[in-house]
Amino acid sequence: MRLHPSRLSLGAAAIALALAAPVWGSAQDEHSAPQGGEDFLPDLPEALAGVDIVEKLDQTLPLDTVFTDDSGRTIALRELFDGERPVLLQMGYFRCPMLCNLVLNGMIKSLEELDWTAGDKFQVVAVSINPQEKHELAAAKKAGYVLEYGRPGVSDGWHFLTGPAASSKALAEGVGFGFRAQPDGEYAHAAAIFVITPDGRVSRYLYGTKYDPQNLRLALLEASEGRIGSSWDRFILWCHVYDPDAGGYVLFAMRLMQLGGLATLLMLGGGVGWMWWREWRDRRGSATTPVIAESGG
User: Fold this and answer.
1) Average pLDDT over every residue of 265-292
2) Do the strands 2-3 and 54-55 form a parallel or antiparallel pair, or are they unpaired?
3) pTM of the prediction?
């Protein structure tokens, strides 16, 4: 379990949004989650306590938790995990005045850059933390985002869920997503999406409201444990490692050294093999050359 101090400032900004500071939302859309150490933490008011993200990598989600999907059907969370495809999870609420829309819009923009299609290589699940929201609102929200995404046949791979407070709280605790209801009925929370393995374990956190398509692709590939993507995709992932300080995947120097060492060995092996082959060819040529005997006079 890992708490990122740098994410607390993002949670504070989200609270400010919930307390009617709309200017922050547009600024957050222009910049990724702030980075830094504890020296950069703001003096948080008591109302902000608990609004942060505590990373719980590899923790299994409460898959027996029950929700209502956008068609009005009651389902258990495990029904959305097929053991093959990873899941992109977003938590917020559908009447959120700004932040949740920024998160979903940023995710859509990143997904549009991928040649993988939602519902095919991976699933998308958006869960409301507001128990007052019902499946009719979820259906309307889904229709708008599926239309914006604009790829055919994706509806079955996108799920907008509502449910009782106990369900959203259990799932939020499973991924370490803190939120608090405000007196005006809005909710304060941080901005992130969660990449979940096909069997329901937390694999990666992507923070902010903008998501680099390469990071998103590698996170999905990593979560799938090689079940999706090409051999080249898996090779690219092998060459990268997730750096929490950088907030994304970076080239792994050790892997580059390994590749360099392998290339050197192949070159040396090829050179030695070529010289051995030339020597063998020359010896064979000498052994098969006929000897012409000289006649005496």
Assistant:
1) 63
2) antiparallel
3) 0.69
Domain ranges of the chain: 2-231
Distance CA 174, CA 187 (A): 19
Q: With 50 as the cut, is the pLDDT of residue 174 above it?
A: yes
What residues contact residue 190 under an 8 Å CB cut-off, 6+ apart? 7, 10, 11, 14, 51, 52, 53, 177, 178, 207
H helix or E strand, kind and range, residue 20: none
Return the higher-pLDDT residue of 235 and 162.
162
3-class state of residue 272 by DSSP: helix
Of 3.20.20.30, 3.30.1360.120, 3.40.30.10, 3.30.930.10, the CATH number of 2-231 is 3.40.30.10
CB 43 within 8 A of CB 79: no
Ranges of H-type helices in the chain: 5-18, 22-30, 99-112, 135-149, 165-175, 213-224, 231-238, 253-288
Confidence category of residue 227, pLDDT binned at 50, 70, 90:
low
Question: Which whole number is the average pLDDT over 266-289?
Answer: 65
* Of 4, 82, 91, residue with least CA distance to 41: 4
* Residue ranges in 158-203 assigned as alpha helix (H): 165-175
Q: What is the pLDDT of residues 8-51, one digit of tens each?
A: 444 444 444 434 333 333 333 333 443 433 444 455 556 566 78
Closest CA to 228 of 157, 124, 151, 123: 123
CA distance 257 to 259: 5
